[in-house]
Amino acid sequence: MSSGVDASALDDYYGQFTSEREKEVLGVPLRLVAAWAGNDVDAVVNVFTKDGTLILPGGVYKVGRDEIRAFLSAAFAGPFEGSRITGKPVDLRFVNKYVALIRTHGGILAPGETEISAERAVRSTWTLVKEDDGIWYLAGYQNSPRGSDATLRW
């Protein structure tokens, strides 16, 4: 989803999370989805804090924008070229006014796909922080396969 998404699609995405504060925080996954759709490594990386972490199945553990950039550059040039990601929030909690936790269900869409295949379905945890510039960033992201048929590995 991106800023070009119609209002009904955004309403479906936000679901039960309707306050302006919730929508502001849920804008972080939307920024990541839009950046990934363009296979724009820098835009994806800039969703993260400078010391953000990325943890994925298959032993992927990247810390900081440089490591995340190198990993995603290879992924977008290889197995995830032309892919998109999608997801929907299923839980959102504010730890305080500067930290929020989101849990989403989603996955990776291969080129031409409109539905997540069972083997690429994931459950994700997003740790978000509001920095001094007033913008929410992704401090930590981790996903794991969701469902008995999920086999996603990096």
Helices and strands in order:
Elements: H1 7-14, H2 20-37, H3 41-45, E1 48-56, E2 60-63, H4 64-77, E3 84-96, E4 99-109, E5 121-130, E6 136-145
Parallel strand pairs: 1-6
Antiparallel strand pairs: 1-2, 3-4, 4-5, 5-6
Describe this structure in words.
- This protein is 29% helix and 37% strand.
- It is an alpha+beta fold.
- Strands 2-1-6-5-4-3 form a six-stranded mixed beta sheet, with helices on one face.
- The model has no long low-confidence stretch (mean pLDDT 91).
Q: Would you kindly provide a brief summary of this structure?
A:
The chain has four helices and six strands. The chain is of the alpha+beta class. The chain is globular, with a radius of gyration of 15 Å.
Descriptors:
37% strand; 154 residues; globular; alpha+beta; 6-stranded mixed sheet
The computed structural class is alpha+beta
Tell me roughly what share of residues is in helical segments.
Answer: 25-40%
- H/I helix tally: 4
Q: Distance between termini?
A: 23 Å
> What is the CA-based Rg, rounded?
15 Å
- β-strand percent reads 35-45%
| Whole-number mean pLDDT | 91
Give the ordered list of helices and strands.
Answer: HHHEEHEEEE
Tell me the total number of β-strands. 6
Major sheet size, sense and barrel closure: 6 strands, mixed
Strand order of the largest sheet: 2-1-6-5-4-3
Shape: globular
The parts where pLDDT drops under 50 for at least 5 residues are none
